[in-house]
Description:
Blueprint: E1 14-19, H1 22-30, E2 39-42, H2 48-55, E3 81-84, H3 86-89, H4 99-105, E4 110-112, H5 116-133, E5 137-139, E6 144-148, H6 161-175, E7 179-184, H7 187-193, E8 202-204, H8 210-214, H9 227-235, H10 241-245, H11 249-256, H12 258-268, E9 284-295, H13 301-322, E10 324-335, E11 340-351, H14 354-365, E12 374-386
Parallel strand pairs: 2-4, 7-8
Antiparallel strand pairs: 1-6, 1-7, 2-3, 5-6, 9-12, 10-11, 10-12
Helix pairs in contact: 5-6, 11-12, 13-14
The protein binds a DNA duplex through helix 4, helix 9, strand 9 and strand 11.
Amino acid sequence: MSPDPATGAPLRRIAHLDMDAFYASVELLRYPQLKGLPVVIGGGRRRLDDALRAKYADLPTHEIPVAAFPLLKDYTGRGVITTATYAARQFGVGSAMGLMKAAKLAPQAILLPVDFEEVRKYSRQFKSIITEIAPVMQDRGVDEVYIDFTHVPGGQRAGGRVLARLIQKSIFEATGLTCSVGVAPNKLLAKMASEFNKPNGISVIYEADVQTRVWPLPVRKINGIGPKAEARLHKLHLHTIGDIAAQPREWLVDNFGKSYGAWMHDAAWGRDDRPVQTESEPVSMSRETTFERDLHAVRDRAELGAIFTELCERVAGDLQRKGYVGKTIGVKLRYGDFKIVTRDQTLPEYTADAKTIRHTAGLCLKRVDLTRRFRLLGVRVGTLARTEDAQTLRPEAAPADLPLTGELF
DNA sequence: TCTGGGGTCCTAGGACCC
DNA sequence: TCTGGGGTCCTAGGACCC
């Protein structure tokens, strides 16, 4: 089953590779004594492990006694789980779950904060191993990629399984990290397939497998069907992907709209011709923060002003470091009831200047209801261009000498 | 003591232009 | 003189993903 017997052209073979419990696995490299134990990564506001590292500064990290690690039950504050080890998942905890809720389910689990530096280091490393073997790779965040196997030597052997194993093995030998791979005719199916055999597994599927291996799955397994669409499908008595595939396209279009309905029909039939894209330009950059307690624009003005300024400075720093400027400045608030509002404003010129961003974001803030307490504040810059391509607003041409710190309005 | 942070894409209405 | 159509930009919200 390598090339198409009719045309002789190679079969399209797309892989999706997903690092297993990536953030947690990276920590286990540093603390191998925690292997097999329930470990949860997340939070990070209280750096419980700072104390740990300070206390055992004279010991290599792998010799720190297990009993010394911070436990989930001792955590207080807002935050969610980024990743849980498979041992921790046994307790019913997993990604995106609130830490306080998780603490009730797995009080004895060890809790470590996210170490972005370390995670990014391993992310770069595993991706460069992949591109050395198979150059057509698309980034999908820190721990996932799509890879086009179609024209890679050996990419057709056993439907891609041989190449998948080579990549898996190369990553493990270089880093000690495992991953799961799905190989399929397209990205949509590859993404599903990579979940079939986790962790450290490989799953190969063909077009002809859609009926037997994909149709029995719940609708949520389609990447792009989230909780809202799932609920609507359930109301229409559609529970499996096969249930969707059995509906006429027009019926789906009538119920879900021209674009989403048609896409859903294609997805249920395993059809997807999106290319693996090796390059992409960012659309926006943002920074946001959730406060330890809900804040009020008037009563907590000084604190909010400082946070606001810092968010603007960080976005500006991100833009400058990465060589971008933007034209649309916006703010985001999340109220105590979790309702989100956004306001934005487009400038006549591009900028990456903290003061200009701060001033414009401040104008946006004036347009939202600030009488209610809120839990999150964010600053966003969109409509980006590379600095060297853009006609930018020079900082000294920005509205001068406005109160830019400690002042929200 | 529910519910992070950084993104993308889509929709939809109004402004504005030809 | 009774109501064109297309196109683009801007803004706000929402779904979804990792």
